[in-house]
Specification:
Helix content: 10-25%
Number of helices: 7
Shape: elongated
Order of helices and strands: EHHEEEEEEHEEEHEEEEEEHHEEH
Strand content: 25-35%
Structural class: alpha+beta
Amino acid sequence: MTGMQEHHFVLDDSVAGVRLDKALATLVPTISRSRLKALILDGKVTLGAKMLTDVSHIVKTGDNLILSVPEAVGATPQGQDIPLDIVYEDEYLIVINKPAGLVVHPAPGNPDHTLVNALIAHCGESLAGIGGVKRPGIVHRIDKDTSGLMVAAKTDAAHAGLSAGFATHAIERAYLAIVWGVPQPTSGEIEGAIGRDSRNRKKMAVVTKGGKSALTRYRTVKRFGTAAALVECRLATGRTHQIRVHMTQIGHPLVGDTLYGKSRKRRLSGLSEKATETLRSFPRQALHARLIGFDHPVTGRHLKFESELPSDIQGLVDTLIGGTFKN
């Protein structure tokens, strides 16, 4: 059948007595469970001449199954030739160093010129298909104005494995941020459920009801007088705007973050006039995803990648070091 890949199985005792979807997940580990379920419901599994559309059908030893997998269709977003800083790539996944200003996924306000458009163009035929569509599997996002490391899947199996890693918080992630003031204590944990801010739907907030549990571990790397500090944040969970919300919650919002916090004059003592102006006029949230580490979802090999501060945040750090008076 043109455009269709057929998988033939004669079942043995190892999968007998289990549900059809679970049996197929064992037999074809390169296809995600959700994709297999969709294929079953779409009539793409047969037992002899009978079409099986019940995912809970119990299979038996000797069953002769045929799984027909349609060729992956083209993605709706169009590929666009946008330069990418590729840190690592193999046939299953890709790690990129995202610049500030690049949106990750097309949305009503940003229909194109996103990271997804760039990945579709770059990866081309190496995209095996996520859920039957030739698109990269976005398993996590970083904000438009946050820079740093991201991983995306190129196959169903990689997408399922990475998604599981994020769901169980097995992915190591560390960020560097410049915040207003100096946290006290200088290291610790911030725990508080995050949900939509009831007063401003564009914002997230620490909430008492309806939010998702969130935990951020932080440590102060360098102080700039009492005005600001370079802080490393490590995510134990991955909620929307988590670092921005949690640092604001303890009174130290990110420099340049116009949504969650602005400068306070009382915090700017100990800086030169130039350093003060540079700090106040920084054009984006000073946040960079500097590290990501995970077990490869297919090979099992442990991978860890680090990224230096981008030039704009490094320039801010240098200006603050040069413009900080000794206390």
